[in-house]
Amino acid sequence: MIRISVPCSTSNLGPGFDSLGLALSLALVVELRPAAERVVTRHGDELFSAVTDEDDLFLRALSHRRASLGLADAPFAATLRSAIPTGRGLGSSAAAVVAGVMAADALAGRPHDPSDVLRAATVIEGHPDNAAPAILGGLCCAVVDCDVYAACIASLADVRAVVASPDGVFPTKASRGALPASLDHKTATASLGRAVFLSHALRDGRTDALTWAFRDAFHQPYRSPLLPGFEAAIAAAHEAGAIGAFLSGAGSSSIALVRDERARVERVSAAMRDAYEAMGTPVTMRVLTVHSRGATVSR
């Protein structure tokens, strides 16, 4: 039997639009074995469990990878178990795509090559900000420029991610449609500078007086009106002692990074929940650790 595990992820971290990502401790686990015909069983939240084979990103990525490598299509039995909530900006799509690419390689007896998997996943996903941390683990910077380049720059072992996920699925298409066609040079430069500063500060373990570095001009100001309570929750997280807080990917979850101190983590979690609920937005709260290892495959 082949077993593949891929962690969830958050992307952007505020100003690092489509380039910064962080692996977190929920995972998609796939178990594969040869079979006479293809059978896929799914266990997860309601949306994940209801996915059909025709709409399954895991199967699409697996087929795409096989076709791109000229590999024969052979049947298999697969069981997918996902603890990653669907449609909450926590990289469920990227995890499925990465798992599909890795499954195609594993079924063909190919060795696991993280760089090659990242290239293949980026072709399918269109951007590497979730795929890179899902594959490499930790805090990653990734960019597409002729090739796909990624570096894991920190493990953040002493940081917890407090995740607030509003009830209901937030449509990624609407979130992406809210973005402007262009930004003025000064605004973009300032946001880019904050992203570079933020990545260096987190890499070096400098987490004091850092909330300003999570401010963004690329996407959050345009998506926040779609999310009642988001701005209040971010402000509440900062006031309660978070390192910084931001919209996770395209939404709907928001995340506060907090130093690993139980009282502080609980204070930030309660503050974010109360801010959302004061706006009439029910939320599910989670406290996750940073996944430092990234995707794995075993036999």
What can you tell me about this protein's structure?
The protein is an alpha+beta fold. It folds into 2 domains: 2-154, Ribosomal Protein S5, domain 2 (2-Layer Sandwich), CATH 3.30.230; 159-289, Alpha-Beta Plaits (2-Layer Sandwich). It has 10 helices and 11 strands. It has helices spanning 46-49, 57-69, 92-107, 114-125, 131-136, 172-177, 185-203, 220-223, 230-239, 262-278, and strands at residues 2-11, 20-34, 39-43, 76-82, 139-145, 147-154, 159-166, 244-247, 254-259, 283-289, 296-298. The strands form 2 sheets. Strands 1, 2, 3, 4, 5, 6 and 11 form a 7-stranded mixed sheet that branches. Helix 3 (92-107) packs across helix 4 (114-125) and helix 9 packs antiparallel against helix 10 (262-278). The radius of gyration is 19 Å and the shape is globular. The model has no long low-confidence stretch (mean pLDDT 94).
Give the low-pLDDT segments: none
**Strand share of the residues?**
25-35%
What is the CATH-assigned architecture of the largest domain? 2-Layer Sandwich
**Shape by Cα distribution:** globular
- What order do the SSEs take from the amino end to the carboxyl end, as H and E? EEEHHEHHHEEEHHHHEEHEE
The tally of domains stands at: 2
Query: For the terminal residues, how far apart are their CA atoms?
Result: 6 Å
Q: Which bin fits the share of residues in helices?
A: 25-40%
**At the first level of CATH, what is the class of the largest domain?**
Alpha Beta
Number of strands: 11
Radius of gyration: 19 Å
CATH topology of the largest domain: Ribosomal Protein S5, domain 2
Average pLDDT taken over every residue: 94
Major sheet summary line: 7 strands, mixed
The number of helical elements comes to: 10
Structural class of the secondary elements?
alpha+beta
